[in-house]
Amino acid sequence: MTIIEKIITAHSELTEVKPGDIVDMVIDVRLARDFGGANVVKNLEDNNLKIADSTKTWFTFDCNPGGSDQKYAANQQTCRIYARNNDITVYDINSGIGTHLAIDKGLAYPGCTLVSTDSHANILGAIGAFGQGMGDIDIASAWASGKAWFKVPESVKIIFKGERKLGISAKDFVLNMLKQFGANSMLGYSLELYGDEIDQLSLDERITIASMATEMGAIAILIPPSEEVVSYCNSRSGKLYEPVFADADAVYAKEMEIQVSEFNTVVSKPGKPHDVVSINEVSGLKIDSVFVGSCTNGRLEDMYVVAEILRGQKIAPGIVFKIVPSTDEIWNKCLEYGWISVYKEAGALVSNPGCAGCASGQVGQNGPGEITISTGNRNFTGKQGKGDVYLASPAVAAASAVAGFITTPDEIPESPVEFEKLNAEKKPHSGNIKNEINKKPMVIEGRMWFIQEDNIDTDMIYHNRHLSVTEINEMGQYAFGNLKGWEDFSGKANPGDIIVTGENFGAGSSRQQAVDCFISLGIQAIIAYSFGAIYERNAINAGFPVLTFDSNININFKNNDYIKVDFDNGILENISNGGKMKITAFSEVQKEIYKRGGLLKN
After folding, report:
1. Cys-Cys with 124: which of 129, 332, 479, 595 at CB 3.0–4.6 Å?
2. Structure pTM?
3. Which residues contact 31 (CB under 8 A, 6 or more apart)?
4. What is the spatial distance between Cα 506 and Cα 307, in angstroms, rounded to a whole number?
5. Can you tell me the distance from the alpha carbon of 39 to that of 148, in angstroms, rounded to the nearest whole number?
6. CA–CA distance from 324 to each of 59, 321, 394 (Å)?
7. Cα 144 to chain center, whole Å?
């Protein structure tokens, strides 16, 4: 049998398995991350399921260490509470990437089985173990039963001949493999790697190579563990484990040889990890940012390479360099060895450990038009932000940060390339401004929303989790999304509606979105007893009508009444019941800004 067949057999009640068999196998290590963890909990609770063995079950918070995203923070807290009630260990936000922790903490070992809500759980192939990413239902089932069903895959044996050229990193090694195999020629296979170069790989290099099995479509890249790897795993677990090797007469679906000496320094072009080209094709391309980290290249050896390149150097002007070690242990080693100081003196940002940008975490995302060189394993469109992401080794990433463009360590120029200034041409105004001003009505009519509540703050109006939205037409959907009882306002409101409310409307922060969300919905005006000072200014400057009651309300209001508002004369009329009252009219300043369509309009 092959390695994966022997591991599956050892974790089942069978004496032998073959490709295509569907087997129930025992799972030794059962992980759930902050991404998906809350859904695992929900699946367990909704189906009244209990944990089979809490000593084999862990939460790992690695996608968004720090909980900087409101939804991640909520998910993490859900998991923490469940963990307390079920005696489950949590590797919290200061710990690092779950699959790395499984290896370094001795949870996983050669020949074991592991599942996680992580598509790169097959990184365990680095120690000759079975690891698989699975969905929330699968993980919930494994937590409850201790088992998972699995279809035995066919195996491919790859023998690497020759020696690597000087400077060819493990990342180059696996990207060259990806260039040859593409995204699907190894789909569904378990790959076993052999050869002198494979035997000499360090654990960190094995992790880099195994981590990109998913990008090839493979079930796993299994690397027979060396004595060094076995010794490391045994020392970390405190137990003695025997590695699993393929039988001499193991049957493979394919066997092939690859010349390592033909591997070159390469880069993956944006959008497709398998779109791998020689670095010569993109060398000199100006970049905006650099990211070093992820489960592929956040290990100690990666951090060392970056430190050596940055030592005594400065990051090119305007370049943003983000460094994220994969675990807290590695972070502390960087501190102990003085590398953190090297990074900071060069001008890099160093974050607490975790997946970071690769998993839409708190560090590593890029903006529209931004060109990033990253050591991650994926560069799908939108995966790490709205810019373009090139994949490369830590050495290329660090060298590019110093140079200001994509390059190798031996091609760093004496002076970095700086950004050129772009002279944006002013766009001509569309239409006649005077005609547009004349279209601004001083008397409006519309359906009323009567919100009888005081001190409605800007977080109730427009929650801070949506502050990254910059397009006004996208903001309306979040209006009142955090105001109890009014969360569905955006779905009910119609263009032309008018809001009437209580005291101190818009208290709190200075966020302009709390005004713009109503503009987005087409709300015509807001009338309140009083407004927060900053909110009132923001509304007036946006050309959005806000007015206050001149005295106590002396006419009856109810939702869906039809009202008429005279900005010039300060009169509010309830057409539905005939009531009329005085409100504070526009000041000359407010009127002028309103007529212009906003403070910044000509």
Report:
1. 129
2. 0.83
3. 58, 59, 60, 98, 99, 102, 114, 115, 116, 117, 118, 121, 139
4. 48
5. 18
6. 20, 10, 12
7. 28
Least Cα distance to 323 among 394, 378, 390, 266 occurs for 394
DSSP-derived 3-state class of residue 250: coil
Model pLDDT for residues 521-565, shown as the tens digit of each residue? 999 999 999 999 899 999 999 999 999 997 677 678 888 999 999
Cα torsion angle, 109, 111, 116, 121, sign: positive
What does pLDDT average to over the chain? 93
pLDDT digits (tens, 9 = 90+) for 439-489: 799 999 999 999 999 999 999 999 988 887 889 999 999 999 999 999 999
Residue type, 592: E
Q: How far apart are CA 72 and CA 79, in angstroms?
A: 10
Class of domain 3-262: alpha beta
Q: What are the φ and ψ backbone dihedral angles of 105, each rounded to 5 degrees?
A: -90, 0
Q: Rounded to an integer, what distance in angstroms lies between the CA atom of residue 211 and that of residue 122?
A: 7
Q: What is the spatial distance between Cα 374 and Cα 316, in angstroms, rounded to a whole number?
A: 16
Do residues 500 and 556 lie in contact, with contact meaning Cβ atoms separated by under 8 Å? Answer: no
Instruction: State the pairing for strand pair 371-374/388-391.
Output: parallel
Confidence of residue 432 (pLDDT cuts 50, 70, 90): very low
Which CATH number is 433-596's, of 3.60.70.12, 3.40.640.10, 3.40.50.150, 3.20.19.10?
3.20.19.10
Asked if residues 326 and 299 have their Cβ atoms less than 8 Å apart, the reply is: yes
Nearest to 205 by CA among 165, 257, 168: 168
In CATH terms, are 3-262 and 267-411 the same topology?
yes
Q: Per the structure block, which two tokens stand in for 43? A: 């699946």
| Euclidean distance between CA atoms 479 and 245, whole angstroms | 59
Q: Which two tokens stand for residue 523?
A: 């709300």
Element holding 350 (H helix, E strand): strand 349-350
CATH class belonging to 267-411: alpha beta
Task: Please give the structure tokens belonging to residue 590.
Answer: 């407010």
Q: Is there a contact between 363 and 351 (Cβ–Cβ < 8 Å)?
A: yes
Q: How many residues in total does the chain contain?
A: 602
Cβ proximity of 101 and 107 under 8 Å: yes
Domain boundaries, given as residue ranges, for the chain = 3-262, 267-411, 433-596
